[in-house]
Amino acid sequence: MNRYVSLVLFLVLVLGCGLAIGGLTVTGGWYADLAKPAFTPPPWVFGPAWTAIYVLIALAGWRVWQRDRSGWPMRLWAGQMALNFLWTPVYFGAHQIGLALLVILLLLAAILAFIAAAWRRDRVAAWLFLPYAAWVTFASVLNGAIWVLN
User: What is the mean pLDDT of the chain?
Assistant: First the structure.
C-alpha cells in the first residue's frame, strides 16, 4: 500500500471514529447539571483540542505501523485507541463517572506505555504522543474532580 494512502486511512479512521463517537454521544442536561471544578475548560475547547490530538494520534500510529505492524508499539497504539473510544460512552452515555475514571487512567497508562515503547524505535511517534499524554492527564484530573464533587 502506498505510504500516503495509508496515512490518509489512519487520519480518516482516527478522526472519523472520534467524530462519530462524539456525535453519537449527547452530553445533554446531565453533564450541564454536574458540579464541576473551577478549572473546567469552556465546552468549546474540547472540539479543537481533540481534533488536533486525533491528528497527532493518527500520525504516530501511521509512523509505527510503517515500521512494524505487529510490534508492541502498534499493539499499544491499538489498545489506547480502544480505551479512548470507550471513555465517551461510559462517561456521557452511561453516566458512570467512576468507571470512566478507571477507563481514562488505563488510557493514560497505555499512552505512557506507547511513548516508552515507541521511544526506542521512533522518537517522532513518541513525541507526537506527548500532547496527548498531557491532555489525558488533565482530563483524568478533571474526571476525578467531577467524580468527587458528584
Answer: 94
